[in-house]
Design brief:
CATH architecture of the largest domain: 3-Layer(aba) Sandwich
Order of helices and strands: HEEHEHEHHEEHEEHEHEHE
Number of strands: 11
Structural class: alpha/beta
Number of helices: 9
Strand order of the largest sheet: 5-6-8-9-10-7
Strand content: 25-35%
């Protein structure tokens, strides 16, 4: 399959252009001529030396990641930046990236994947980011405790052995859950506005402890990497359905 066709399909499904003025990541094809032919696609959360080398070793023609190599502008390709880019050029390995579009997709996205683990119902977009959203909210099938929620997430996420951390400041029973994967505690106020009992995200900031305690809401910190494996895995299923060979490169950070 032509790389151009894959890029067009992913861009259309993820609405890449709609996030162009919002995201610090240049989403879409970051490296590679779109005239290439692709037979084998590798998928990973992070474009890093390890995952690029693993994609080369797997014989992939294209690497698809959530976190790419370019953030904002790219002024120089030297030092570690050169070390990361060089194998892509040497082995004719293209790089496709989807950051916020893959967070916000309501079926294939990272938040949607976490919502699937929890079995959320009556889902709505959550996590306003300009005119777009980067998360999802929904209702648990049955009210439960935050401890039970923690157990479900630890069983369903690739935490790399890292325990799920809970700031247990909300009600005894939780029902509405708000999710923004990765670094999402900045949406605590919006979680309160939609009536969430718990905000599930990846990592926290110091001030969220006091903010959550004062507001009376649980915050679950399940790991940045662990909450962001779902999007690339969903894209891998899409690529497999197109008849492409696929490989998932698991590189958990524990963070």
């Amino acid at each position: 399959m032509h790389l151009e066709t894959i890029v067009e399909r992913f861009d259309e499904e993820l609405r890449t252009d709609d996030y162009a003025d919002l995201d610090g990541s240049p989403n879409g094809l970051q490296v590679g001529p779109d005239s290439n032919t692709v037979d084998h696609v590798a998928f990973a959360v992070d474009a890093a030396a390890e995952t690029i080398d693993a994609a080369v070793e797997a014989g992939a023609d294209l690497l698809v990641t959530h976190h790419g190599l370019v953030w904002g502008s790219l002024e120089r390709v030297t030092g570690r930046t050169y070390d990361r880019f060089a194998p892509l050029f040497e082995h004719d390995l293209a790089l496709y990236v989807s950051h916020l579009p893959l967070d916000g997709h309501q079926e294939l996205g990272n938040a949607a994947g976490v919502a699937d683990v929890l079995g959320l119902e009556e889902r709505d977009p959550f996590g306003s980011y300009g005119p777009e959203h980067v998360g999802q909210t929904g209702i648990l099938p049955d009210p439960t405790t935050v401890d039970s929620l923690e157990t479900t997430l630890e069983a369903g996420l690739e935490t790399g052995g890292r325990p799920v951390q809970v700031l247990p400041f909300g009600p005894d029973e939780v029902e509405r859950v708000a999710i923004v994967t990765g670094s999402g505690v900045d949406w605590l106020e919006e979680a309160l506005e939609v009536g969430a009992d718990v905000l599930v995200t990846g990592e926290g900031k110091q001030q969220v402890y006091h903010e959550a305690k004062e507001a009376g809401i649980h915050v679950v910190l399940a790991g940045h990497y662990a909450t962001e494996t779902f999007g690339v895995r969903a894209l891998m299923q899409e690529a497999s359905a197109w008849g492409l060979e696929t490989t998932y490169l698991e590189q958990p950070t524990g963070l």
